Amino acid sequence: MAYLSDFVKSTLSRVVLGKEIPAFPYNIGDRVESFNSTIWALHKGTKRDDNSPVSILCFDCVRQKDKLPLARNAFKKFRTIRHPDLIKYIDGVETETYIYIVTDAVTPLQDHLRSGLDPNLIRWGLFKVATVLKFLTVDASFIHGNIRTSSIFITKSGEWKVGGFEALSSLKEDQPAILTFAGLIPESNRYAPPEVRKKSWNAVKDFELWSTDTWHYACLIYEVYNGAFTNSEQLASPGKIPAEMAPFYKNLLRPDPKTRPSVGDFLDKGMQAKGFFQNDLIQIVNFLENFSVKEPLQRDTFLRKLDMQIDRLPQEFCKYKVLPELVQALEYGSGGAKVLAPIVKIGANLEEHEYEALISNVLVKMFASTDRSIRLSLLENLSGFIERINKKIVNDKIFPSMALGFTDTAPIIREWTVKSVLLVIGKLSDKTINYDLLRYLGKLQTDEEPGIRTNTVICLGKIAKHLNDGMKAKILVPAFSRSLRDPFAHARVASLMALNATADSYDKGDIANRIIPCISLTLVDTEKIVRVQAMRSLETFVKRIEKLIESMPDSAIVDTGRESPNGAPTTRSATPSTPSSETWAGWAVSSITKKLVTGDMQPQAVGSPRMGNNSPSPANTPVPSTTSNHGSGMSLSNAGGSNGLQIATEGRNGGGHGGHTINRYSSALAAVEADEAMAGGTGGWGNEDDDLFADEGFEPMEVHEPSTPSPMPSFSTMKPTIAQAPLRPSTSANSSMSLGGGNRTGGASARLGFGAMDDSGADAWDGDDDLFKSLNIGNSNSSNVRPPPPPSSTTTTGSGFVRKEEKMAEMARKREERRLRMAEAKEKKSQTTTLGARKI
After folding, report:
1. What is the mean pLDDT of residues 539-544?
2. In the Cβ-directed half-sphere of 126, how many Cα atoms lie within 13 Å?
3. Interatomic CA distance for residues 463 and 482, integer angstroms
4. Residues 236, 194 contacting (CB under 8 angstroms)
5. CA–CA dist 36, 482 (Å, integer)
6. Can you give the pLDDT at residue 21?
7. 472 exposed, middle or buried (CB, 10 Å; 0-12, 13-18, 19+)?
8. What is the pLDDT of residues 285-341, one digit of tens each?
9. To the nearest whole percent, how much of the chain has pLDDT over 70?
10. Residue 632, SS3?
11. What angle do CA 54, 60, 63 make, to 5 degrees?
């Protein structure tokens, strides 16, 4: 190593060339001022290579030249003796002026005693000192000769380490330092045992090796609990020493060194059942230091207890003593899966740089393990450490290993892998989420385990906010719709809840066309929990779509026949202005279309409309209209003294009301005219009529929404067909229409016709007032109102058929009336008076 090379060079320079050390690979920092009762000065330091902290013991060879043999003896013993409870030697160098000994970063015990120490840590410290003294005096045949508070140091884990090697020596050496130079140690007389005070340090060789260190160990116990003492008489009073330890402490202070027990005996007494060294902290340390040689059952039992006790242990002890032991056990396999729980619990108190150095690398390595128990334990404890790991490490190293669990043959691994997605989703890249992760979840939707399918749906619903918009539209609805058909009831409930939670992710088209139809199927589910959740979800989506369609226009139908003031086509509402018009007009047009298409309307309905049995009125000429309504639409046009009836029917699925179009109406009209021709005439409508109406100007009809529809003028001479009835509104000679009951076997039904009568003899107008109010038929020329002719002699038989002779007479009368109307229309046309049609 580098420091050995430097040390050799420095030794050669000093010995051969007599020069100072050329370089020292450590930075010497501030001195610890409280450490001033030994021949050493303690400095904080750092290693130049990695800036790691160290402690440096410095000895001034010039100022303390008389104590140089002690410093050189300590330097030698630091380099030659190793034990876990001795302060760890890292490097050292001796020059003409200084001796530097580099150790682990430590602090003096005296500083901790002034600030207060945890009682468990004190017992653990005394236990560690007793252990190292037993090793030195029994196993290595050394005498320490300098056990006191100034010789004890504490690491950052709270572990006590023994230093003060100035007098450490073996009696087998040529010139043992303890016999020759022990008296040079500061305050050596205060700590000297009775036999030494009586004679000299040479008396040590006359008794057991441990006798001196036993006395010094008793002095240490007293100072730890009671503080410094000034004379040996004070040691007789235990003071604050624990009662269970006090009797054995007194044995250590026996004046006769031959009856004085060894520190090893004191240690054995303390480790007995209910002994003073039997506490949780010491037991934990002892087990961890021998963890790899314990039986699996013993390790499992210990780890369970440790997980419960970890919160009661000193934090620094857990971080720097327990944690490294557990990480080592996990990394090398001796700890198994159960060691992970206490690791995660302790790691929560670490700083970021400490966590990365001590835990992160090991966890990444463990995720690649093929041991299912370790992988399961990692997934179960994922919430305790995933937030402490860098995003790049999670995305590039941990997730690829974790994703193997999606396809694992063990169901419990698959289930915990799905649950773990929610914990790592925030650290994954968009590509990993929208492609790799969704592919795994899609496969798990068809898993054989119902619980895994359910958790997959829940997981997908919770990570939806992390998906991009394209994947939301493509994945969510099909995934949740599939789960609505799952045979497991809880999977269906989970799907409904997931849809509910992601309602803001869907547009109105998806909600109306894909989601609501799927939810509606579960309203009659065999399980009540599904039905209840389905109703809640349906309410959510209905409210959602109501909000989404608020900004939609009333209608997308454009009226091309009328322009707005700025010249653009106007959009007209397809909804009738009033509920009554929607009900009555829709019913009326439906009836009209049905009768025209089926041919059930009598010829008189086209040839001669009437207000009663014998009420003549101008003929109605059907004109196809482009105006549409909900299922059917109807408008009237009045121009040039003639009455024009426009009927438009349009179905929602491409056909008109009842499945017929206006072409059907033209066919029915042609059939009626053919019947009239067969009856003995052309009906008075030839090519000349076409010329007449071709010259008339039909203006676009306007939609009016009057608050109170205008009633039609009534005829004073109108009489009911069978019995007296109230007068009914009528139109002028240029615009007349009525609803009458048609002759139909089996009962009365309304139809568009004039002069018809139902079988029951009731007035065909009853109940139809609202229809005409809503239609608001205009009266353009009330002066041309013609009184109704006398009632016709036509009668109705019980079977509903008119005799042939009566029918022929009726047809002749119609032709005459038509001829008169044609003449009147031509006369008005010659006066160039044209009235535009008005639509209501």
Report:
1. 93
2. 31
3. 18
4. no
5. 79
6. 52
7. middle
8. 999 888 888 888 999 899 988 988 888 888 888 988 899 889 888 888 777 788 888
9. 67
10. strand
11. 155
Burial class of residue 612, CB neighbours in 10 A (0-12, 13-18, 19+): buried
Instruction: Output the CA–CA distances (angstroms, integers) from residue 92 to 5, 570, 829, in the order listed.
Output: 12, 99, 131
Rounded CA-CA distance 261/253 in Å is: 9
- pLDDT over 90 at 780, yes or no: no
Are 22 and 108 a contacting pair, CB within 8 Å? no
Bridge partners, residue 45, by sequence: 28, 54
- Which residue bears the tokens 């009455």? 643
For residue 375 the two structure tokens come to 């992988």
Phi then psi dihedrals of residue 636, to 5 deg: -115, 140
Strand partners of residue 638:
643
The residues, any chain, with a CB within 8 Å of residue 150's CB and separated by 6 or more, are 35, 37, 38, 108, 109, 110, 164
Reference 649, options 627, 663, 632, 666; nearest CA is 632
The CA-based diameter of the chain, rounded to the nearest angstrom, is 168
pLDDT for 74: 95
The pLDDT assigned to 315 comes to 87
pTM here? 0.58
- DSSP letter at 747 equals S
d(CA 538, CA 540): 5
The arrangement of strands across the sheet holding 642-649 comes to: 620-624, 642-649, 632-639
Predicted pLDDT at 776: 38
pLDDT digits (tens, 9 = 90+) for 158-195: 999 999 999 999 999 888 999 999 999 999 999 999 99
Among residues 197, 169, 193, which one has the least CA distance to residue 181?
Answer: 169
DSSP state of 714: B
